[in-house]
Design a protein that fits this description.
The structure is a single chain. The protein is of the alpha/beta class and 355 residues long. The protein has two domains: 218 residues, Spore Coat Polysaccharide Biosynthesis Protein SpsA, Chain A (Alpha-Beta Complex); 112 residues, Hexapeptide repeat proteins (UDP N-Acetylglucosamine Acyltransferase, domain 1, 3 Solenoid). Helix content is 18%, strand content 31%. The protein has a seven-stranded mixed beta sheet with strand order 5-4-1-6-11-8-12, with helices on both faces. A seven-stranded parallel beta sheet has the order 14-17-20-23-26-29-32. A six-stranded parallel beta sheet has the order 15-18-21-24-27-30, with no helix packed on it. Strand 2 and strand 3 form a beta hairpin. Helix 3 crosses helix 5. The longest helix has 15 residues. The radius of gyration is 22 Å and the shape is elongated. The structure holds guanosine-5'-diphosphate-alpha-D-mannose (GDD) and magnesium ion. Magnesium ion (MG) binds next to loops.
């Protein structure tokens, strides 16, 4: 079965991390997020993958090529302007002649795809939507089903007073090609707002497939941070430290896992790195700096005696000595934090700012 990954659209809620970089290319454990998604499909023996992309698609193509390095066959479908989730699939229609999988490109899950495909076939559904429980359904597609798992209602981001279930659209669908008859060509069209409601109106066989296994989306910096931490704990032992290549670590420096240190880092004397921590390639951690619970992208320079805790710092940032960046701060690319600055908790700093 083929899968199509939705890797376009806007990424406003993940700012300031998505400046000049598509949401799916945001590094998670020092790899583009999309590499984890492709790895998931491959693990489930799905190796024919179409990437539906918009702006900045060259970055994706340059990195993944024909997919062979990642064990899959990739085909690219590029939109001139955002076509919406369904419009993007419509463009790739000629590549889809049998049942296929659609995956939002900003989710990570352990959902058992084979079991979901069997469920879809047994019910002869035109569409099966994976469903996962969440605490706050208002920022998702809320899906009501009946006792037979047939979908009764699909409401995209409804207000609290319209919510009748905590089961939401997990962003994984098994679809029949017939569904594309419901999508206009070359027009902005969304599964969530247009196609699913139209199918239900027509009484088509739309099913919900509830599952309990791990699921998260990286729609906001907070969720991105949570995913990094969860995957780190999953791939790296509780206290392990993984060096991805050669780095210099001064003998007096302390590195406590779980942590991943990218290639070519320089970790100076008396500095402390405490997990969970992901340090990108080419980072410098200055003398006496303490770095705990951080995600640092590549080529960041952290000065002497800096304190970093529970924050995300994108590429090429320069954190001058004795400054402090604490809980839930998020810095975009090439931010400069001046000597001795103390950023307020939760600060979101846009790319290229000096603070
Ligand atoms: N190619 C392409 N073109 N992809 C798009 C477009 C587009 O015009 N618009 C959105 N996408 C991709 C995004 O990159 C993302 O991977 C996916 O489609 C979903 O879009 P988001 O913008 O992330 O939507 P959302 O997170 O608000 O809501 C969606 O995901 C939730 C689960 O995380 C909906 O599908 C909800 O119903 C769902 O609950
Ligand atoms: Mg999303």
């Amino acid at each position: 079965m083929k899968a199509i990954i939705l890797a376009g659209g806007e990424a406003t809620r993940l700012r300031p991390l998505t400046h000049n970089i598509p949401k799916t290319m945001v590094p998670v454990l020092n790899r583009p997020f999309l590499e984890h998604v492709i790895g998931y499909l491959k693990k489930h023996k799905i190796v024919d993958v179409i990437l539906a992309m918009g702006q900045l698609s060259e970055q994706i193509q340059d990195y993944f090529g024909d997919g062979s390095e990642f064990g899959v066959r990739l085909t690219y479908s590029v939109e001139n302007f955002p076509m919406g989730t369904a419009g993007a699939v419509k463009i790739a229609e000629k590549l889809l002649d049998e049942s296929f999988i659609v995956l939002n490109g900003d989710i990570f899950t352990d959902l058992d795809l084979t079991a979901m495909i069997n469920f879809h076939r047994e019910r002869k559904a035109i569409a099966t939507i994976a469903l996962t429980p969440v605490e706050n359904p208002t920022t998702y597609g809320v899906v009501e089903t009946d006792g037979q798992s047939r979908v009764r209602r699909f409401m995209e981001k409804p207000p609290w007073d319209e919510i009748t279930t905590n089961m939401i659209n997990a962003g994984v669908y098994i679809l029949e090609p017939d569904i594309l008859g419901y999508v206009a060509f070359n027009t902005f069209f969304s599964f969530e707002h247009d196609v699913f409601p139209a199918l239900l109106e027509k009484g088509e066989a739309v099913y919900g497939y509830p599952f309990e296994s791990f699921w998260i989306d990286i729609g906001t910096p907070e969720k991105y941070f949570r995913l990094s931490r969860d995957l780190l704990l999953r791939y790296i032992g509780d206290k392990d430290v993984k060096f991805e290549g050669e780095s210099f670590v001064h003998p007096s420096a302390q590195v406590v896992g779980p942590a991943i240190i990218g290639e070519g880092c320089f970790i100076d004397r008396d500095s402390v790195i405490k997990g969970p921590a992901v340090i990108g390639p080419g980072c410098q951690i200055g003398q006496g700096a303490t770095v705990q619970g951080v995600v640092l992208w590549q080529n960041c320079k952290v000065g002497k005696e800096v304190k970093l805790r529970n924050c995300i710092i994108a590429s090429n940032c320069y954190i001058e000595q004795r400054s402090e960046i604490l809980d839930n701060c998020v810095l975009g690319d090439r931010v400069k934090v001046k000597e001795g600055s103390k950023l307020p908790k939760g600060a979101l700093i846009q790319p290229n700012e000096v603070v």
